[in-house]
Amino acid sequence: MKNTSFAISESSTLVAKLLARTEDGKISWNEGAYSSSALENFETELEGGVLVRISSDKAGVTFEVLIKKDYDSNRRILEVYLEHDPSFGFDLPSESELYSKLIELQEFARRSAFNVDQNLASTMDYLERLAG
User: Fold this and answer.
1) What is the pLDDT of residues 87-120, one digit of tens each?
2) Please, are residues 68 and 51 in contact by the beta-carbon 8 Å criterion?
3) Closest listed residue to residue 47, CA positions, set 76, 69, 19, 67
4) C-alpha separations of 98 from 34, 90, 101, 123 in Å
5) How far is Cα 109 from Cα 23, in angstroms, rounded to an integer?
6) 17 secondary structure, DSSP code
């Protein structure tokens, strides 16, 4: 898949807003149906049946925005794919910045999906009680 400057620009704007709302705790993420040891996949459903998915494997990261049509059928309205370490560098100037934002968004999505902050706080509390 070849990215277009239009898709990169729209994705960059959208990812920045998703990052801010996820960081504020206003958007929660779930582990996607296709996650495995080789593929991390997180998704969130927004108002109007819009599904946002971010996934990565050893080769790169994919960002998708889909309109949910019915149970098995979604219509992809935006998709970008960026390699983790492109051998010839990024094709478009803004891909490098978008890549950094996508990696950050995926970490926030992972933390949301797995309740990382709550689980770490519970673990720390438990360890403190053991010491006392």
Assistant:
1) 888 888 799 999 999 999 999 999 999 998 888 8
2) yes
3) 67
4) 23, 10, 5, 34
5) 9
6) H
Distance from C-alpha of 9 to C-alpha of 58, rounded to nearest angstrom: 24
Residues 106 and 61: their CA atoms lie apart, in Å, by 9
Q: Which two tokens stand for residue 106?
A: 């995926």
All residue ranges of the chain with pLDDT < 50 are none
Please, which residues have CB within 8 angstroms of residue 8's CB and are 6 or more apart in sequence?
Answer: 80, 92, 94, 95, 98
The pLDDT of residue 117: 85
Structural domain boundaries of the chain? 5-131
Amino acid at 91: D
Q: What angle do CA 105, 107, 111 make, to 5 degrees?
A: 115
